C-alpha cells in the first residue's frame, strides 16, 4: 500500500485561519490555554473555548479531546498534548506518535473529511524538528493507508524551519 503522501498537503501559515473540518491544537495538560499555537487558537476561537475546555477535565500526554471551534473558521478543534522533549530517552517519540494517532482516530470516528495539524511539540516543548516532523508524517501516512477519513490532512507550518523539514520529508516519500 503506498504511503498515501498525496492525501497529505503542506502549507506555511496560521492554523487559526485554515478552513478544514477540524484543526489540531498543541495544548498542555490543563487544556486551559497557553502560548504558541494554543494561545493563537484560544484568541481566535474566543472565550467560549476555555469554558468548553474546563468541562473536559484536562488531557494526558499522547491523548486528544474534541471541542467546537467557536469563532474559528474550522467547526472543530482536536486538542492534544505532546511530550516535552527531555533527552529522547523518556519515551518522547512514542508519546508524540500517540498524539497524531489519537487526533486521527477522533477525526475518523467523526468522519471529518479534512484535518489540519501544527507541528506538535516543535515549539515550547522543544522537540527536535526533523525527528518530530518525521514521526508526524510516518503516523499520518500509516493511518491514511488504512482509513478513508480524514480524506485529506494539511500540515500547517508556522515557521520556515518546520516548513523546510516537512517539505523535505514529503519529497523523500514520493
Ligand atoms: N499556526 C500554526 N502553527 C503555529 C502557530 C499558528 N498560529 N503558532 C505557533 N505555531 C507552531 C510553532 O511554530 C511550532 O512549530 O506550532 C508548533 C508547536 O509549537 P507550540 O505552539 O509552542 O507547541 P508545543 O511545542 O507543542 O508546546 C506546547 O506550549 O503554548 C503552549 O499551552 C501550550 O504548554 C503548551 C506548550
Order of helices and strands: EEHHEEHEHEH
Q: What fold name goes in the CATH topology slot?
A: Leucine Aminopeptidase, subunit E, domain 1
CATH architecture: 3-Layer(aba) Sandwich
What is the overall shape? Answer: globular
How does this structure look, described?
The chain has 174 residues and is of the alpha/beta class. It has one domain: 3-Layer(aba) Sandwich (Leucine Aminopeptidase, subunit E, domain 1). It is built from five helices and six strands, in the order ββααββαβαβα. The protein has helices at 36-45, 48-54, 92-109, 129-146, 160-173; strands at 8-12, 22-27, 64-68, 76-81, 114-117, 152-157. A six-stranded mixed beta sheet has the order 1-6-5-2-4-3, with helices on both faces. It is globular. The model has no long low-confidence stretch (mean pLDDT 96). The site of adenosine-5-diphosphoribose has 26 residues, from β2 and α1. Adenosine-5-diphosphoribose is lined by residues 14-16, 26-28, 34-40, 82, 118-125, 156, 158-159, 162.
Descriptive tags:
binds adenosine-5-diphosphoribose, 174 residues, 5 helices, alpha/beta, 6-stranded mixed sheet, Leucine Aminopeptidase, subunit E, domain 1
Short description:
The protein has helices at residues 36-45, 48-54, 92-109, 129-146, 160-173, and strands at 8-12, 22-27, 64-68, 76-81, 114-117, 152-157. The chain has five helices and six strands. It has a six-stranded mixed sheet, sandwiched between helices.
